[in-house]
Amino acid sequence: MTTSTSTSATGSASPARQVTVELAERSYTVHIGHGVQRLLPQVVAALGARRAVVVTARPAGQTPDPGVPSLVVPARDGEEAKDLAAVTDLCRRFVGFGLTRSDVVVSCGGGTTTDTVGLAAALYHRGTPVVHVPTSLLAQVDASVGGKTAVNLPEGKNLVGAYWQPAAVLCDLEHLKTLPDREWRNGLGEIARCHFIGAPDLDGLPLLDQISASVTLKAGIVAADERDSGLRHLLNYGHTLGHALERATGFALRHGEGVAIGTVFAGRLAGALGRIGPERVAEHHDVVSRYGLPTGLPPDVPVSELVELMRLDKKATDGLTFVLDGPEGPGLVRGIPEDTVGATLAAMPRAPAW
Where are the extended beta strands (E) located within the chain? Predict the structure, then answer.
């Protein structure tokens, strides 16, 4: 993984950052800064694509120009639209446009659009290049980088997916200027959990530095473990409970909010198992609170339902499984007794997250 700085795509002195995800022949660059969306025609030309399908959840006037003949397909951000039916519909649109595996798919939207379009690109012709233009903070620091694509089933979140690395990622900070407060929090939940997996004290940094540090951390972990055989599990810090909370609330609780609460819970569970001391447990709460994120469980979600949902987590191959802090840093802990998990959940405070 390499990081560099240059002028922005607008030609001004405002810095832009480039983070390279080092994966041999599948390596790619994440461009971060104001105006970097304008690099899209250059990226598409370098791929040799003759046409593009642009799947966008943005208003018509904000559709990125790929610089080649293109089909624009409207999308809708949100977990309710992230399913196999959406993937099928996209692939049929690709066929209708005559897209080949030498062309390119462009996603432009939040995390759910990025996930869904990424999976469609992974499956179409057994793999068609995809370029992500993430337009939410969550998508910029998480969903667009690393090649994990997935959609939901009624039984659980992200249960059907594939690894498919993008050809490039363009994180244009201009898209973040109009984000509503809850979308900011959605992304901040992922930034907050970075404190415990290798990128501490990001809350006092400028936004460009926060995003760059989060992407740099993820790029290094993905380069070392692309397919979740070990180290990459660290990126799931706070996610086991977070995903369960999303499902239990019918996605009324946003992903980043769930991860924030899951991060506080991870600290409490690590403390209950004797892996960390009281000060480190308290640090989980304090870090999450500094970002203005929720730290307690929603009022009306039963502990038993959360435990049942966590059994469906993809990591849970040997009982309840969590990424937890410990004396030598965070790691995957399997086979945690359900009564310990339940008691720790029951001791969490309850408070509305929105």
Answer: 2-7, 15-21, 28-33, 52-56, 70-74, 104-109, 130-134, 148-153, 156-163, 168-172, 320-324, 331-336
